[in-house]
Amino acid sequence: MVCDHVSQAVLTLPVSSTPVYKEECTQCFDDHNMAAGIDVCLSCFNGGCPGTPNNHAHQHAMKSGHHLTVNIRRVRKESDERPTKLTKLEIVEEPENDQYEFETFVRCWGCLGARVDNVPEDVQRVVHAVLHAVEASKGSEIKAWAEEVTACSHFDGLTQVPVADFSSEALHQCSMCDKRDNLWMCLSCGHVGCGRKQYDGSGGNNHAIAHFEQTGHRVSVKLGTITPEGTADAYCYACDDNKLNPHLAQHLQVFGIN
């Protein structure tokens, strides 16, 4: 017997344009390689860490009312095979499925994070779609290439003075409202603001662009898109466009983000 949260759930399948955050928490840097894995919301496909100390998956569920998640943990496969003899110098890409396996289960945060057994077929279909969807950050990279995103001079010689009350805790929520997703950090002062409001009323409350209009601070980075390789979604309000930030690592170090 399944709980009411499962039996009454109304879920829709993600489509090709739906961002699915299944590799990294959108609020911190925990990812699916960690022991706790990543919980992907089966309603909006937000990715959240289910472990302490942050437990952003639980926070998202309590705030949104989206109780069901699929936990995804990536584990490297053990192999007893000897490496093949090197006969020529070449780079061969090894498919991810040959290197890793994925451990998954459905969780209900409405039942205190309990594991769901006997998952109904309609929920299984959504889980299957999530597992085979393109990770949102990779989709952003593909989109960036397609749009030929370039750098601009506004990232050069940037003056950075963090606000007096800046702390890493401030990175988890808009400083002007209670939004916890689609957050942008000003690279001049560290102010965190939510993104633009969409025509249908979804999205943010325009607090990131309002900060630019009030201060003239022109460049920002989207939290949750920062990669270990030193890339992220960056925006220049002066150019009013997505831009590449060639100095991103240096700019983030000012705020203690390495």
Overall description:
The structure is a single chain. With 258 residues, the chain is an alpha+beta fold. It is built from 7 helices and 10 strands. The strands form 2 sheets. The protein has a 5-stranded antiparallel beta sheet, sandwiched between helices. Strands 7-6-8-9-10 form a 5-stranded antiparallel beta sheet, covered by helices on one side. The protein is globular and about 60 Å long. The N and C termini lie far apart (46 Å). The model is unreliable at 86-94 (pLDDT under 50).
Label this structure with key terms.
five-stranded antiparallel sheet; 7 helices; 22% helix; globular
Question: Which SSEs are present, and which pair or pack?
Answer:
Layout: H1 4-7, E1 38-41, E2 47-48, H2 56-64, E3 68-76, H3 96-99, E4 100-108, E5 114-115, H4 121-132, H5 136-147, E6 183-186, E7 192-194, H6 207-215, E8 219-222, E9 234-236, E10 241-243, H7 248-253
Antiparallel strand pairs: 1-2, 1-3, 3-4, 4-5, 6-7, 6-8, 8-9, 9-10
